[in-house]
Amino acid sequence: MLWRAGRHEFRFPRPMLVMGVLNVTPDSFSDGGRFYSVEAALERAGQMIREGADLLDVGGESTRPGAAPVPAEEEIRRVVPVIQQLAARVSTPISIDTQKPEVARAALLAGASLVNDIAANRTDDAMGRVVAEFRAGYVAMHMQGTPQTMQQNPAYADVVREVDEFFAERLARLEALGVRREQVALDPGIGFGKTLEHNLQLLGAMPRFARHGRPVLLGVSRKSFLGKLTGAESPADRLPGALACAALAVRDGVQILRVHDVRETVAAVRVAEAIEASRPKQ
């Protein structure tokens, strides 16, 4: 299986890709604006690369439940200088975490290679056209509602089936817009319009999504459902639960993990991969 993101390509099977989160926002739930300045963001990016990050995911708008939207102009002001500087300094592929086509375009022009889109449930085609034009990589994430509404009583008849059907429908729609399947990765959107039980059902059904023949990205890092399971109120204290999910994701064939804690996650998945590789072949 091949995943293309601009000039970058990844062939699977291969060691799991670890995507490091780089929030350049003043109000991120996970790091409280610690990397809001360009200098701090570049320093953090370098640290994540040294710790083993295969991808960097730059975001300029918080998407925590209830977060207020950020105007496109402000989002561009936050992310483009960071992406320009990173693209000039490192060879690590850069992702833009945005739901706005105009932000995606500005980021791709600045040197990003892929778009991580929480709003792949949109009804308009503007984002798909941008991705097709730049031949960028694209992460299509499932979300019920919007960040402002997604945790207001999310409901499904069968969350696994509905996410699975969403992936099939999105792949077909993106192809119709000129986005090749090899550009697309799929994200079930843990915590985006899901209850604790919905999240657990999806995590238990990850192998099902392999039927689409596309890489699966999983993002559980520091999310609130881990706190509900373990009692960890602080996002930083949810790392053990996230590492448990990471190890199981290796077993279940997930190809990409989006994380805040790169060093710890890389260590956990490499151990899990070694164990999986040692299993007797059936």
Structure characterization notes:
α2 runs parallel beside α3, α3 runs parallel beside α4 and α8 runs parallel beside α9. The relative contact order is 0.14. This protein has 282 residues and is of the alpha/beta class. The two termini are 22 Å apart. β5, α3 and β6 form a beta-alpha-beta unit.
**Number of DSSP strands?**
10
Mean pLDDT: 93
The Rg value, from CA coordinates, equals: 17 Å
- Give the overall shape: globular
Q: Note the gap between the termini.
A: 22 Å
CATH superfamily: Dihydropteroate synthase-like
CATH architecture: Alpha-Beta Barrel
State the helicity in percent bands.
40-55%
Task: List the keywords.
9 helices, TIM Barrel, 8-stranded parallel β-sheet, alpha/beta, two-stranded antiparallel ribbon, 282 residues
Layout of helices and strands, plus pairs?
Blueprint: E1 2-5, E2 8-11, E3 17-23, H1 38-50, E4 55-59, H2 72-89, E5 94-97, H3 101-110, E6 114-117, H4 126-134, E7 137-141, H5 159-176, E8 184-187, H6 196-204, E9 217-218, H7 224-230, H8 239-251, E10 256-259, H9 262-278
Parallel strand pairs: 3-4, 3-10, 4-5, 5-6, 6-7, 7-8, 9-10
Antiparallel strand pairs: 1-2
